[in-house]
Write a structure and sequence with these properties.
Blueprint: E1 2-10, H1 11-14, H2 20-35, E2 39-44, E3 52-57, E4 60-65, E5 73-82, H3 86-95, E6 103-108
Amino acid sequence: MKYALLVHQSQEHFDRRNDAAAVAAGKAYGEALQAAGIFIGGAGLDSPQNATTVSVRDGKRQVHDGPYAETKEFLAGFGIIDVPNLDAALEWAARHPAAGFASIEVRPLLGSHFMVGTSKPPK
């Protein structure tokens, strides 16, 4: 079963993401996921200040710079893992290096209506 591990953290911790210890811990965690054969994909995300939010209202596209909601914590990164059950997903979430100062939301994927695999060049 596939689960998303969604990392929610404060701006203070996000600003320390390039700290050597944080980089090493993230690299070790990623290597452990790969060694276990459960890593599907994932990435850290840029700051919410660099986000653009899109919505469609009354058939018209609306674009807003920055995050839409004011919050003390924000989505800072994600990972997708394929493990047998929720208990295994929770174990891997607890091992995430950010779990000590941030929250790791574990959410099952519902399947995909999008094509998964390699992208094809546009025609």
